[in-house]
Design a protein that fits this description.
By secondary structure, the chain is α+β, with helices and mostly antiparallel strands. The chain contains 21 helices and 17 strands. The strands form 4 sheets. It has a 5-stranded antiparallel sheet, with helices on both faces. A 5-stranded antiparallel sheet has the order 7-6-10-9-8, sandwiched between helices. The protein has a 5-stranded mixed sheet with strand order 12-14-15-17-16, with helices on one face.
Length: 704
């Protein structure tokens, strides 16, 4: 064997087993009554001995310790351990025989571990001999240190240690009495061994409370009071004092338990009322088994139970409120997963909670609502909490529209943890809103009805007049063809020249040049008139038809041109309308009928403003419509040279039912609905106006 480093490693890895073996020897042969009661003290003892052997191996790795006539039993690691242990145990009052007796069992435990763990018998024997010499040197060092100390030195050492022990005892007593909560110590027979002042005050009325010290008159009075009272309880079975402990003590014995805790109601003699206490009972942690009793700790939890009860009642009240309120409650984490949902929202979706909790909320959204919902959640991370609308799909596939009032959820470090949202069912409101928008469309159509009739009547007169002309001409052609046929039917070779002259006369009478010149223009005029009528009817039909409300891509310029056509009779008598369209505009994703209504309302309003200004003159105003694209939006402007908006009315023009028109000429819902439509599309509307000179409305629709 080259060295004994592996022996040191084996001992270090066996600390727990060594401690168990030595403790077993101490308990078996009665040494435990003079040793430490705590696990950590035993562990430090084993660790110190193992470290001493390991340090010796490091300095002497290839041979074991020797017992020579000139050996120094003080300076090496093993001998030094023996000297320190001699001083420590002697100061505690342990005699030499007692220590050496226990130390023999240390030796046995170490050798037993080596023989048990080292499978190589030859190596195990070498390790055992090495350990025997180590223990020999420790014992020799211990005896030499013990024997060479003078009696006076030993006495001083013992007195110093007694002072330390007395201080430790006083510290323990002070600590014991310093607890505001009652503490009871039980002996092995479950008899009361000690009780602190708080415990006595629980059992008997006392006007004095506080800490127990040993250096003032008040403390001595408390000590005297306690001393008298404790004699009444000392060594009495605890069940005579606290009968309600019977089941707990029985459980300790039945299950060989080490710990029990429960809450019970106890009459407090000092306060004169029943109070709730959390009673904790646990066994003394004494490895030596000299103190096999128990500790009972009483914690007054009356106020805590009262607070907990109030808290539970409050929680129950607010839980009931949340569950029964008419709004849906939704809590999402940072990944949009549902962590809480109340019954109202479950009812809206038509699903039980277990089919919603733990799922991404995107699963329940209308497809067209998902992009805006995701955008709103990203805004929540930035602290924004503006209300927004979105659509859901319930279990039956029906659409449910809700208005969300969100609040960001943040953690203690202010990091984003999710969103708390209150959802209001606005499906009926959305239905009414759609009906109102459609009604306003019909109102607009009603306002334009006379003009539309005129717009249709003019081309219709062309069609009727030209159709009559064509019919008369065709009748003449038919008569001419009949006459020619009759002439040809009666024709004979002898009279051929006469018939030819008659046919020529018939054709000359028809005025063929006039017919060939006038018929094609008349037909073209009919077709043009019919086309214009068809265009007007198609535009009105497209505007008036209630669409599905789905977002589709539209050609902005084409839709504005359509609105200009059907509103022509509203502006043609009072204004010239010009336009400048950006031909590079991208298509706009929107609800087409809503877009048309916005543009049509603004054009009609411009015409009415001009009419108001020029009503008593023969002058005409100007309406100018433009389109242009910005980085992420489409911008539409509609300008007029009308009367402008007075400063006093500028804050009211978008209010529902506000109008400056005469009774019967408007409901005041036009601009209110325009604003609602634009907000629905996440757009913006604003205006610039100068009273007496005109107004320009700007409408911005976001792209994408």
């Amino acid at each position: 064997m080259k060295n004994f480093h592996s022996l040191a490693k084996l001992l270090e890895d066996s600390e727990s087993e060594l401690m168990a073996a030595i403790l077993n020897y101490a308990l078996t042969y009665g040494y435990s009554q003079y040793t430490s009661t705590l696990v950590e003290s035993w562990r430090l003892s084993i660790s110190g001995l193992t470290n001493a052997i390991s340090r010796y191996i490091v300095s002497n790795p290839e041979k074991g310790p020797e017992i020579a006539v000139d050996s120094n039993y003080r300076d090496d690691a093993i001998a030094g351990f023996g000297v320190i242990e001699a001083q420590r145990h002697r100061s505690r009052g342990v005699d030499l025989g007692m220590f050496l007796g226990l130390f023999k069992y240390y030796r046995d435990s170490y050798i037993d571990i080596v023989k048990k763990k080292e499978k190589d018998k030859k190596k195990a024997e070498q390790y055992a001999r090495y350990l025997i010499r180590c223990f020999d040197r420790i014992e020799l060092a211990f005896c030499i240190e013990w024997a060479t100390a003078s009696e006076d030195f030993k006495l001083d050492e013992l007195q110093s240690k007694n002072i330390v022990l007395a201080n430790e005892k006083n510290k323990y007593l002070t600590l014991f009495e310093s607890f505001w909560s009652p503490i009871v110590l039980l002996g092995s027979d479950d008899e009361l061994d000690n009780i602190n002042m708080a415990g006595i005050q629980l059992l008997e009325h006392s006007g004095s409370t506080g800490f127990l010290y040993y250096n003032d008159e008040f403390s001595l009075k408390l000590l005297d009071e306690k001393s008298k009272n404790i004699l009444h309880y000392k060594n009495r079975p605890i069940l005579e004092i606290f009968p309600w402990l019977e089941s707990s003590l029985s459980a300790f014995s039945r299950y060989n338990a080490n710990y029990n805790q429960f809450v019970t109601n106890i009459f407090n003699a000092s306060t004169g009322r029943d109070e709730d206490y959390c009673v904790t009972m646990f066994s003394m942690r004494d490895l030596s088994k000299r103190n096999p009793g128990k500790i009972i700790f009483f914690e007054n939890v009356t106020e805590k139970i009262h607070v907990d009860k109030k808290l539970r009642e409050s929680e129950e009240k607010y839980r009931t409120l949340v569950e029964t309120m008419n709004e849906g409650i939704l809590v999402l984490n940072e990944d949009h997963v549902v962590t809480y949902i109340n019954e109202k929202l479950c009812a809206l979706l038509g699903l039980p909670k277990e089919e919603i909790l733990g799922h991404s909320f995107e699963e329940f959204l209308l497809s067209e609502s998902k992009p805006d919902f995701m955008k709103q959640q990203s805004l929540r991370k930035e602290g924004c909490s503006d209300s927004y609308e979105f659509g859901l799909v319930n279990k039956d596939g029906e659409k449910v529209f809700v208005l969300s009032s969100p609040t960001p959820i943040t953690g203690p470090d202010l990091s984003y943890r999710g969103s708390y949202e209150v959802l209001t069912n606005i499906s009926n409101i959305k239905l009414i809103e759609m009906q109102l928008i459609h009604s306003q469309k019909m109102e607009t159509i009603g306002i334009m009805a006379a003009g539309l009739a005129h717009e249709i009547n003019t081309p219709l007169q062309y069609v009727i007049g030209n159709s009559s002309f064509i019919k008369e001409t065709i009748d003449k052609i038919v008569d001419m063809l009949r006459a020619i046929r009759e002439t040809l039917k009666n024709a004979s070779p002898a009279k051929s020249s006469d018939e030819a002259l008659a046919i020529g006369q018939i054709i000359d009478n028809f005025d063929m040049d006039f017919v060939t010149q006038e018929i094609p223009p008349a037909i073209n005029a009919c077709l043009e008139g019919l086309s214009r009528i068809s265009s007007i009817v198609s535009s009105v039909k497209k505007f008036a038809h209630p669409d599905s409300g789905k977002y589709t891509a539209i050609d902005v310029n084409e839709e504005i041109g359509n609105a200009i056509r059907i509103s022509r009779n509203e502006w043609k008598h009072v204004a010239e309308l010009t336009s400048r369209f950006d031909e590079t505009l991208p298509q706009l994703l929107c609800v087409a009928s809503d877009f048309n209504q916005v543009v049509l309302n603004l054009i009609i309003n411009a015409a009415h403003a001009i009419h108001e200004k020029y009503t008593r003159t023969s002058q005409k105003g100007l309406i100018h419509v433009t389109t242009s694209s910005e980085r992420h939006s489409v911008l539409i402007s509609i300008s007029d040279t009308g009367s402008g908006i007075p400063d006093a009315l500028r804050d009211k023009i978008f209010n529902p039912f506000f109008t400056t028109k005469e009774v019967g000429k408007g409901t005041g819902m036009g601009l209110a609905i325009v604003l609602k439509i634009i907000e629905k599309h996440k757009g913006k509307i604003w205006f610039e106006s100068k009273e007496g000179e005109g107004t320009t409305f700007y409408v911005q629709f976001p792209l994408g």
